[in-house]
Amino acid sequence: MIGGLKDVIGNFNFIRMSAALTVLYFVLTGIQFWFSDYLITVIKIDKSTVFDEFAIVSVTGTVFGVLAGG
Which segments of the chain does DSSP mark as H helices, in order? Predict the structure, then answer.
């Protein structure tokens, strides 16, 4: 078990990609949560409007990302 863990820890590419995905997910989750909260509490936009716009951006962003990246 220790030998396998040493192999994983010693694999620099794996560690680098894992760290990059961790930071990416942390930032995206923060933007999704805090920006919606900001629009509702500070800008005073109706909750249903914020959630509808968030859904549209989330769906179209994913689709356009696949189309542009593929």
Answer: 2-10, 12-41, 47-69
CB distance 14 to 8 below 8 Å? yes
Please state whether the predicted TM-score (pTM) of the whole model is above 0.70.
no
- Answer yes or no: are the C-beta atoms of 32 and 54 closer than 8 Å: yes
DSSP 8-class letter at 43: S
**Token code pair at residue 19:** 């760290």
Output the six-digit token pair for 10.
Answer: 């010693």
Tokens representing 27 are 């930032």
Q: What is the pLDDT of residues 16-27, one digit of tens each?
A: 999 999 999 998
Q: Return the DSSP state at 70.
A: -
**Burial class for 40, CB neighbours closer than 10 Å (0-12, 13-18, 19+):** middle
The Cα–Cα gap between 7 and 9 comes to 6
